[in-house]
Amino acid sequence: MRIGIIGAGRIGSTLARHFAGIGHEVAIANSRGPETLQDLSAQIDGSARPVHAAEAARFGQLAVVSIPYGRIDELPAAELRDKVVIDTCNYYPDRDGHDPELDEDRTTSSEKLRAATGANVVKAFNAMYWENLRDRGRPKGHAERLAIPLSGDDEEAKAVVSGLIRDIGFDPVDAGRLGGGGRKHQPGSAVYTAELSAAQMNALLHG
């Protein structure tokens, strides 16, 4: 699969390593330009090339958005429209500036990302410490395999993202729809940054 990643911070670069490492073609972008990503791409085993954000969005059959929530208006919306987009972002008011709609829980950051881009958004990879995402993938059935929650409104898109989660060594747990489900794994929720098995996470999300 061709995967475009917008955002080369800890989560974005970790996902680039994982996805390229299992055979996907990756194009990764940041806000400073592809020339600043040469060292990262050289360290990644597999196919990973640095590009501009719009090119990453065009390249990907699926795209990952891994940037500070406060910068979603800078995304290449036209290139992301109608694509499956994995949203790893979280809203942190102290970093992003206050958003009254989010502060009052009238909507969620993922729903606002969808509105800004017209993408088919699946929220995932936002609730795990990046070090665990980097280091703690385990084979299927392993006693220490951790779960990753995801949410979205399109079952086929969630199935694709679930497959990627499994392939890099974690168990996907469907939290529900993008709004209600996303609230269950945003900052402050019971599963946010928790190190849980799929059974434990299911119990917290749906118990």
Essential attributes:
8 strands, 207 residues, alpha/beta, single chain, eight-stranded mixed β-sheet
Would you kindly provide a written description of the structure presented here, covering whatever features stand out?
The protein is α/β, with parallel strands linked by helices and 207 residues long. It has eleven helices and eight strands. The chain has helices spanning 10-21, 38-43, 53-59, 77-80, 93-96, 100-103, 109-117, 130-135, 155-167, 180-183, 198-206, and strands at 2-6, 25-29, 48-50, 62-65, 84-87, 120-124, 147-152, 171-176. An eight-stranded mixed sheet has the order 3-2-1-4-5-6-7-8, sandwiched between helices. The longest helix has 13 residues, at 155-167. The chain is globular, with a radius of gyration of 16 Å. The mean pLDDT is 97.
- Range of helix content: 25-40%
> Class by helix and strand content?
alpha/beta
Order of helices and strands: EHEHEHEHEHHHEHEHEHH
Characterize the largest beta sheet: strand count, sense, and whether it forms a barrel: 8 strands, mixed
> Which residues sit in consecutive blocks of at least 5 with pLDDT less than 50?
none
Q: What is the oligomeric state here?
A: single chain
Rg for CA atoms: 16 Å
The averaged pLDDT comes out at 97
Counted by DSSP, the helix tally is 11
In total, the number of strands is: 8
Strand-residue fraction? 15-25%
Spatial order of the strands forming the largest sheet: 3-2-1-4-5-6-7-8
Shape: globular
- Cα(first) to Cα(last) distance is 35 Å
